[in-house]
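Q: How would the structure tokens look for this protein?
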Amino acid sequence: MSFTYLLRRTFSAAFALAALMISAFFLVRLTGDPVNLYLPFDASDATREAMRVRLGLDRSLAAQFIDWAADILRLDFGVSLWHNRPAMEVVLEALPNTLALGAIALTLAFLAAVIIGSIAAVNPGGWIDRGFNLLSQAAASVPDFWLGLMGVLLFAVTFKILPTSGFGGPIYWILPVACLFARPFGTLVQIIRGSMIEALNATFVRTARAKGAHAGRVTFVHALRNALLPAITVTGDLAAQFAGGGGVVEVVFGFPGIGKLLIDGILKRDFAIVQASIFAVAVVIFIINILVDMLYASIDPRVRVE
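A: Here is the predicted structure in token form.
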């Protein structure tokens, strides 16, 4: 990967990030006046006006935008009304939880999909292939929130072997990871299976077989190396989605990640939290895309990013 390519991607990402943050500035203000949410219903007009002055909401939208833009350039997103702390500080506490949750779920899904998809592709149309195909389609189709609710009902309420929600030791991660695992697993199995079937029928694989190469080596080295390329592209897209947090899953399980933080920030009209969360997620997505490009080029020597 050349420095020119990296610089070009950085500039394009900066423009996209600026457009995203400007859109977020105006959109969050369409959710309503936070003063009405944080003050009692019977609060006096003087109290309401004092809070608006303290938050800078008494000024024109243009004046608010100019001050906001100056603060953003210093990476100052303001103080969270909800937490009464710097917004970025709160976001940076929640972001590692989301990244860890997504990384665990996606890594397990990728590894399982490679194994299942490869086995299914060896004998396409057989009963093993049909069974794995049905399993993967079901996993790719099930909604995350439904799977989460069923997991709570079955394992937490009925059998009482897992906690319903919260955050702590490894036991609290099992249900959220399982819910985030299902959809990427089903999607990747379908992609790897199709790519493996094509690769196993390619000329270079037939040549390797004719030279007496071991069947396992042909499948998991020669064919799989080429079949992984489209799977890596899709995995990068899934990783970018996970960077925003499995919002619904995090809410269902009370998992303190950035997805839950963003949803709560919107509901509580905490402008600083919403904007800081969007900024952090956008930066992480940019980094993920760069890493996927580098991985893609390293696996396939024919691919060179200039």
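The radius of gyration is 24 Å.

The mean pLDDT is 85.

Upvote if useful.
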